[in-house]
TrEMBL record:
Matching InterPro entries: Ureohydrolase, Ureohydrolase_dom_sf
Protein name: Agmatinase
Family affiliation: Belongs to the arginase family.
Keyword rRNA processing assigned: no
GO biological process: putrescine biosynthetic process from arginine, via agmatine
Length: 369
């Protein structure tokens, strides 16, 4: 066991926990955790020890895709509940996508009131360190965005041939996931692009005075890309400003939902592939907000939107891109299983989970290639 891996493992054992345990519960819904534990380990007791032992297998794991759950919805703010996404999506993958294989790193330890350490004073950080880690003689981060970036930085420094598949949680979580990814690839001399599926641009500078949230994370990762237009967005349709505003202001490339529906996924994918080749992109990261899909397919989310993409639209675009470029990092965000805002006759949370699992399984398989 290398010294570098041992240092990474020590960090993981402090800052993460067993899969599904990242969502904060006392007694309510604890049976949900027990059900996942049975699926993963065949038992509900001594799971923490089994998870810690499993970490030793990571260096020799045949899977390039490494799953990380971040059960935080503190960076959201419309309809909450995406903190349950990691637990429920794992269960859906096990039950419905039996061919899906990845190494499960576990969940970030989440204090549900926190977002990023930069918003906290020293006294709060010290108190939270005691709560999370059991003593005050540590310098670990305490907020989900801060912990995620720190763990991912260490992961990419230790495993250059593997990638993180992140499960959220609200979309603010993609900020540390993509930032760590982009920094690592830049240090390796790789040219990257972010493929972003969403009903919303997520290009605010701040929201209600907070700069890192579900509506602004894209703005703050642009500086880590080779160029702003290496952020390519698909499915946009809920915006107070036209496409021209976002593209001219931020320099990004957008394909709105109406364009994809009208022209067809194949034509849009062909344009994207041509752009990526012209930009000499080596690898891509896919960030998928489930609300990119039309509300009939994805109602169990904080901001469901009509007139969106079908799951087939998304899979057709992703398949075409994956045939030409390695997908080496990805995430699935904003599945909120207990928050089904559908109207009578529309979809249920089971439908949202089913479609989210299909797309997640595709992305994991692409990463493993």
């Amino acid at each position: 066991m290398s010294t570098q891996f041992q240092a990474f493992k020590n960090k993981v054992e402090h800052c993460l926990c067993a899969p599904g345990d990242g969502v904060f519960t006392v007694n309510t819904a604890k049976e949900r955790k027990a059900a996942l534990r049975n699926k993963l380990y065949g038992q509900t007791e001594n799971v923490d020890a089994l998870w810690r032992d499993s970490l030793n297998e990571l260096p020799n794991s045949p899977h390039k895709a490494v799953m990380l759950g971040i059960s935080s919805d503190c960076g959201g703010g419309i309809l909450r509940g995406a903190n349950w996404g990691p637990l429920f999506l794992r269960s859906a993958l096990i039950d419905q996508q039996t061919q899906c294989r990845s190494f499960d790193l576990g969940d970030v330890r989440v204090i549900p009131h926190l977002l990023h350490d930069k918003y906290l004073n020293e006294a709060t950080i010290t108190n939270c360190q005691k709560a999370l880690y059991g003593n005050d003689n540590n310098d670990h981060f305490v907020s989900p965005l801060s912990i995620t970036e720190d763990v991912c930085d260490s992961f990419y420094a230790t495993f250059q041939d593997k990638g993180i598949f992140g499960i959220g949680g609200d979309h603010s979580i993609s900020y540390p996931l993509t930032k760590a990814y982009l920094k690592a690839k830049r240090s390796q001399g790789k040219r990257t692009a972010i493929i972003h599926f969403d009903a919303h641009t997520d290009l605010l500078v701040e929201r209600l005075g907070i700069d890192l949230c579900f509506g602004s994370w894209c703005t703050h990762i642009l500086e880590f890309l080779p160029a702003p237009h290496h952020l390519i967005q698909f499915g946009i349709r809920s915006s107070g400003k036209p496409k021209s505003h976002w593209e001219s202001t931020f320099g990004v490339k957008q394909h709105w939902a109406a364009e994809i529906i009208e022209r067809g996924a194949a034509a849009v994918a062909a344009d994207t592939i041509a752009q990526l080749k012209a930009d000499k992109v080596d690898e891509v990261y896919v960030s998928f907000d489930i609300d990119a899909l039309d509300a009939q397919f994805a109602s169990a989310t904080g901001t469901p939107e009509e007139n969106g993409l079908t799951p087939q639209h998304a899979l057709d675009i992703l398949s075409a891109i994956a045939d030409e470029f390695p997908i080496t990092g990805a995430d699935m965000m904003e599945i909120a299983p207990f928050t089904d805002s559908s109207l009578v006759g529309q979809s249920s949370s089971e439908t949202t989970l089913r479609e989210g699992a299909k797309i997640s399984a595709f992305l994991i398989a692409a990463m493993n290639r």
